[in-house]
Specification:
This protein is an alpha/beta fold. The chain folds into two domains: 222 residues, Rossmann fold (3-Layer(aba) Sandwich); 184 residues, Glycogen Phosphorylase B (Rossmann fold, 3-Layer(aba) Sandwich). Helix content is 43%, strand content 14%. The protein is built from 16 helices and 13 strands. Strand 6, helix 7 and strand 7 form a beta-alpha-beta unit. The longest helix is centred in the first third of the chain and has 37 residues.
Length: 456
């Protein structure tokens, strides 16, 4: 056999293996699900129990910004008379101490079902290539079948991203005739970020999920309005906003007193802290560039500034931090527990929020803890929902990301009081954003969904 014939042979063999190992099983799984939801549908439950099947993907001991929201529902479900069953991805090996501690906070009687993330491999054309992976949607759908046979829920709540949970939830809701609730922690095809799949196919699938949903929850009013404008077929009456929030207990550890009041002056070290993930949604490059220029122009302030970055950092963010000119002014700290992070928030001089135009419809979860800490916020970038909150509550300084002189002025403001006085307006705002309060709102919405399905 000539070398050219051998090459053709091995290519054909590779294609056959791909067809046999990846594409054919996916086509079969997809056909089975479509047949199941069309021809093996269940009748609606006349009086469904107050139970929720919660479809999430990242879950403790994994720690990402989105895990705290669903955990709060699980934590306070019993107070509202609800039971929650969780289906999530398999825990990663070697979790962090912070992740283990977060996992311990989940009520012990919570039923948690973990499934392995499926290797995606070559996409099985012409099946839809959904955000999060079609094979993961298959896995979620199939893994729920045994649960549905023994304990059919009153509501299926799918939380994304990733958004294969939405599609799996829509399939399950159709087959088992259950109410479907979609929780947008972030946006799908309306997302301004490239790491979310948002092509024509994903847009079509999102419309399918929205049409199937009984209730759609957003975390900001801007996102709700944008979704209604983007999807004319979306019924505005089934769209609600339930914001993210904060947990008061994270701030109060016995024996840990609040740091004393301190005024910034020309001799004081100024510590700026950023807590949370650095990556595509929070890219530090623009801030590092502006800070570098400020330190270039002022040797005096260069001796006083300390910038702490606490939390996970993407590969690209690590490169940007490594290229920062003034490494002596930089302190990098790995992920720490939520309570430790809240104590840090109360001990520094400024808390940094990165606010590029891409997140103007977003409110980062850390903002609630930042405000609760009483430490002034340094917002890098103007505009958007977060800037509106900071301005209305007077809890920090907002600087133009394209004008480093504003950053220099903020850092040189020797009359700034480090601790902000907690006004009645701030206290009322914080009370309404406590996790327990927000969880009760979620369960009130779920009660309404169940009642509407039971008594149409």
């Amino acid at each position: 056999m000539t070398s050219q014939l051998k090459l053709v042979f091995w290519r054909l063999l590779t294609q056959f293996r791909t067809l046999n190992n990846h594409q054919l099983p996916a086509w079969i799984d997809y056909a089975k699900i479509q047949y199941s939801i069309r021809f093996k549908k269940y009748r609606a439950i006349k009086a469904p129990e107050r139970s929720m099947l919660l479809l999430v993907w990242e879950f403790p001991p994994q720690i990402l910004g989105g895990v705290y929201r669903p955990i709060s529902w699980i934590k306070y479900a019993a107070d509202a008379g609800w039971k929650v069953t969780v289906l999530c991805s398999q825990a990663e090996p070697n979790p962090s101490e912070a992740g283990i501690e977060l996992e311990r906070s989940i009520p012990k009687n919570t039923q948690i079902n973990r499934v392995a993330t499926q290797p995606q491999g070559p996409h099985p054309w012409p099946l839809p290539n959904i955000d999060g992976g079609l094979k993961n949607a298959f896995t979620v759908f199939e893994s729920v079948q045994p649960l549905m046979q023994t304990d059919r829920p009153g509501v299926i709540l799918a939380s994304g991203p990733p958004f294969h949970n939405f599609l799996a939830g829509a399939w399950l809701a159709k087959k088992y005739n259950c109410p479907l609730v979609l929780d947008y922690r972030d946006e799908w095809t309306a997302s301004p970020f490239t790491f979310v799949l948002k092509d024509r196919i994903n847009s079509k699938l999102e419309k399918y999920c929205l049409h199937r949903a009984d209730l759609v929850i957003f975390t900001t009013e801007s996102q709700r309005l944008y979704a209604i404008q983007t999807f004319p077929e979306l019924n505005e009456e089934k769209c609600v906003v339930v914001t993210n929030g904060w947990e008061p207990s994270d701030f109060f550890i016995p024996g840990n007193a609040r740091p004393p009041e301190k005024t910034i002056n020309t001799h004081t070290t100024i510590t700026i802290a950023y807590l949370g993930n650095l990556g595509p949604m929070a890219d530090p490059e623009s801030f590092l560039t502006a800070l570098s220029k400020v330190l270039d122009a002022s040797p005096e302030i260069r001796t006083r500034i300390k910038f702490k970055c606490i939390g996970k950092k993407s590969t690209e963010a690590q490169k940007q931090l490594a290229n920062f000119k003034y490494q002596d002014n930089l302190e990098l700290i790995d992920q720490i527990t939520k309570q430790a992070a809240c104590q840090v928030m109360r001990s520094v001089d400024f808390l940094l929020i990165l606010n590029p135009p891409t997140i103007h419809r977003y409110i980062q979860g850390k903002l609630y803890e930042y405000i609760a800490s009483g430490t002034p916020i340094l917002m890098f970038g103007k505009g958007g929902e977060m800037a509106d909150i900071i301005s209305s509550l007077n809890t920090g300084i907002i600087v133009d990301a394209d004008n480093e002189s504003e950053l220099a002025h903020a850092l040189n403001n020797t009359n700034a009081q480090v601790r902000t006085e907690q006004s009645a307006k701030i206290n009322n705002w914080l009370k309404s954003r406590q996790r327990k309060v927000l969880a009760s709102i979620i369960f009130e919405h779920l009660d309404r969904v169940v009642q509407q399905r039971t008594n149409p």
